[in-house]
Amino acid sequence: MFGRILHRGEVYEGYFEVEGGRVVIDGYEIEDYRFLPPIKPTKIVCIGLNYMDHAEELNMEIPEEPIIFLKPPSAVIGHEDVIVMPRISKRVDYEGEIAVVIGKRCKNVKKEDAMDYVLGYTCFNDVTARDLQSKDGQWTRAKSFDTFAPIGPYVVTEVPEKLKIETRLNGKVVQKSDTSNLIFDIPTLIEFISNIMTLERGDVIATGTPAGVGMLKSGDVVEVEVNGLTLRNYVR
Q1: Class of domain 37-235 as given by CATH
Q2: Helix-strand-coil percent breakdown of the chain, rounded to 5?
Q3: pLDDT band of 157, cuts 50, 70, 90
């Protein structure tokens, strides 16, 4: 595992183990800690409309190539942090996603080599002011508010062939899918994006959201789980 941990006033950044829900660093179990956002990306590259079930839900055609957009690093928050709903928006939605974290600088990567550049995966929530997205006709404002990029709690550094994702709102399952439903798989995304822009260590590719996106309200608790790893955030 890789991440950033606040422990008794000190920030630890690096590799650690998680054993039975306990965090172990260099053979020592630590207490009185909290997870910080696991990485500090220079950019968050998000993918629109990348699950078959989500395309069907929206009655939209399958894209011929990945649809990409960016979220700013200033939107990043971590596990157990608060999503703040902007007053200017009347509808804010959750979008649970699998995030891929880049492990080393890369450009013009070939699909067959793509996973060599991956540090690991984690959970991501592409929080969106849906009404502003519709109003603007493009996505920058709707996706970029502070706190609109929850990520974590840490990066799992071994990536299995199949990743399962589940989103829960106040304990109720609202999204459930896996990477077999992706329109463009992870190596394809890395090849496509790296042929447009240089990817730096710590950059994030948010691979898209499955069917079941919905509205958040103040007081909600939203959880995104990927293969047993859970990101939890509160809404106000």
Answers
A1: alpha beta
A2: 15, 45, 40
A3: very high
